[in-house]
Design goal:
By secondary structure, the chain is mainly β. The protein has one helix spanning 79-84; strands spanning 2-3, 9-10, 23-27, 33-45, 48-54, 64-69, 74-78. It contains 1 helix and 7 strands, in the order βββββββα. The strands form 2 sheets. Strands 5-4-3-6-7 form a 5-stranded antiparallel sheet.
């Protein structure tokens, strides 16, 4: 993780694709793409880098969603977690 020069952070050393604007894809249980968005503003806290996740128009009623950042594989989260934005994942 390195500073982005603006008070935030971004990935480095093989994680260069993890930065503000990186693609976020949301899938339903069957693996169908139901919404797309991007990583938003980043915040650095010690050695951790957190990003706002911006995905408009995610349909309700799915029960759970699978979220993928760039090509890094999916993370399954409940619909309440997805809608409130209270979920997390890690790389590395």
């Amino acid at each position: 993780m390195v500073s982005d020069g603006e008070g935030g952070c971004e990935g480095s050393e093989g994680f260069d694709d993890i930065a503000e604007g990186a693609a976020v894809t949301v899938y339903d249980a069957a693996g169908t793409v139901i919404a797309t968005g991007a990583l938003g503003e980043s915040t650095r806290a010690g050695t951790a880098c957190s990003f706002e996740v911006i995905v408009p128009d995610v349909p309700a009623g799915e029960g759970f969603h699978k979220v993928e950042i760039t090509h890094r594989g999916t993370l399954q989260i409940s619909e309440p977690e997805a809608m409130s934005g209270s979920f997390g994942g890690s790389l590395g």
